[in-house]
Amino acid sequence: MQRLRHGLTLTLLLAASAQADDRSTAPRPILLDSHLDTPMHLARPGWDITARHRYADDLSQVDLPRMREGGLDGGFWAIFTPQGPRTDEGRTLASEHGLAVLTRIRDMVASHPNDFELALCANDARRIAAAGKRVVLISMENAEPLAADPGRLLTYQRLGLRMLGLVHAANNSFADSATALPEWHGLSAAGRALVGEANRLGIVLDVSHASDATFDQVLALSRAPVIASHSGSRVVAASPRNLDDARLRRLAAQGGLVAINSFASDLITRRPNPMRDKALGPLYRQFRNAAALSPAQVAELAGRIRAAQALYPQQPVTFEDFINHVLHVLAVVGPQHVGIGADWDGGGGVEGMDDVSQLPRIRQRLLAAGYSETDVADIYGGNLLRLVEAVQRSAAAQDRPSGCAH
Questions:
Q1: Residue-number span of the structural domain to which 308 is assigned
Q2: Residue 134, SS3 per DSSP
Q3: Distance between CA atoms of 205 and 140, rounded to whole angstroms?
Q4: What is the pTM of this model?
Q5: Do residues 179 and 241 touch, judged by C-beta distance below 8 A?
Q6: 293 and 230, same structural domain?
Q7: How far does the signal peptide extend, from start to end residue (predicted)?
Q8: Which of 209, 256, 344, 365 sits between 20 and 30 A of 82, alpha carbons compared?
């Protein structure tokens, strides 16, 4: 009998050990950010995505060493085009700029084939991450590069574009922005046509930066789920870029996703600081032209920005402020409709999470709040990949296959 009890105890210990081994060897959830502005750094002379940088030195937040340290498998790398004048010359410059940024993203992948790989669908992303490489999905922030020829969306799609943000900080040819006075009262006629074409081509529509009317009309017109790739909760902070609870619920009800950003002015309601804005505005505009600056000039500009921030301090924004948005949106729509879109290299970052090396804090905080590892895996990247699949399935039903098996 005693021998039997010993045998049973040994069996139970071995089973527990096997379960522990299974947990330790379970696949790590894929961590994908839905909005990386890092391509703006790729144009800078001497800037190397495979070298470790410091935000304090060159204002960058994403590179290969820090991605590895923070467990960031990749995400959507944005073709961002600042809104210029809506003239023939302005539309031409926007068209050229968009294609130039797309080329830089593809050149990064081609130059580092052992580290990065272009993904055209969710299965690509899973395979690339499993191989230990970084996932490069391509998005567009501000559709103005298409204003001269909206038909060029097909060209972008063939070259890898899988997400389209219609508008940025100013109204454009397609839609009203959340931070501008109404012009189209939502979408223009060209914008409505662009929504249909994006659906047809299997391109995810992104309503971050869109006005409320634009958001409402995109959801009404789109035949596929929609994303807010870097937004937050208007209940937590009254930024026009954030979404109210009713719109969050409607987005989720249509299978959509809201990815929470870490852009400080969207996370808390700050007191106006006009002297700070006046000092920093020209410096940030200069940084947008960093492709024309040497590394020494970029370092000098970073120092001037830090000095202006110190001269005109404002209420700090912390990791817990970011988490407040995450937890509120989770409470409203559930963990199947939330993701991470921190706006890295586009103004994101808070105290306690100022670059991608610190991303593991999100998982720790979610688990502490009572969410499961399955929930974390969904929020980290599972929801985003399922959204891409849903949009591409919708396009395939319209006889526009993406070239990937679903």
A1: 271-314
A2: strand
A3: 10
A4: 0.91
A5: yes
A6: no
A7: 1-20
A8: 256
∠ CA(193), CA(208), CA(202), 5° rounding?
A: 45
What is the H or E stretch that residue 187 is in?
none
d(CA 230, CA 322): 12
CB environment 330-339: b (16+ within 10 A), e (fewer): bebbebebbb
For residues 365 and 259, membership in a common domain is answered with yes
DSSP characters for 135-150? EEEEEEESSGGGSS-G
- Is residue 18 pLDDT above 60, yes or no? no
* d(C-alpha 109, C-alpha 213), whole Å: 37
Specify if 406 maps to a domain. Answer: no
Q: How confident is the model at residue 404 (pLDDT cuts 50, 70, 90)?
A: low
Gap between the Cα atoms of 406 and 402, Å rounded: 10
Residue range 168-198, pLDDT digits in tens: 999 999 999 999 999 999 999 999 999 999 9
Number of domains in the chain: 2
Q: Is residue 147 part of a domain?
A: yes
Between the alpha carbon of residue 1 and those of residues 6, 9, 134, 326, the distances in Å are 9, 12, 56, 55
Residue 318's Cβ-count burial label (10 Å; 0-12, 13-18, 19+) is middle
Checking if the pLDDT of 8 tops 60, the result is no
Q: Are residues 383 and 297 in the same domain?
A: no
Element holding 116 (H helix, E strand):
strand 116-118
Whole-angstrom distance, CA of residue 347 vs CA of residue 45: 21
Q: Which residues contact 121 (CB under 8 A, 6 or more apart)?
A: 162, 388, 389, 392, 402, 403, 404, 406
378 falls within a domain: yes
The reply to whether 159 and 63 lie within a common domain is: yes
Same domain, 185 and 326: yes
Q: How many other C-beta atoms are found inside a 10 Å radius of the C-beta of residue 174?
A: 26
Instruction: Output the CA torsion sign for 45, 51, 57, 61.
Output: positive
Which residue shows structure tokens 């944005």?
Answer: 78
Q: Provide the token pair at 346.
A: 């586009």
76 and 91 part of one domain: yes
Amino acid of residue 188: S
Do 354 and 3 contact (CB within 8 A), yes or no?
Answer: no
- Output the six-digit token pair for 40: 């703006």
Q: Spell out the alpha helix ranges (H) of 189-318.
A: 189-201, 212-221, 245-253, 264-267, 274-287, 295-311
99: tokens are 């294609």
- Residues 287, 355, single domain; the answer is no
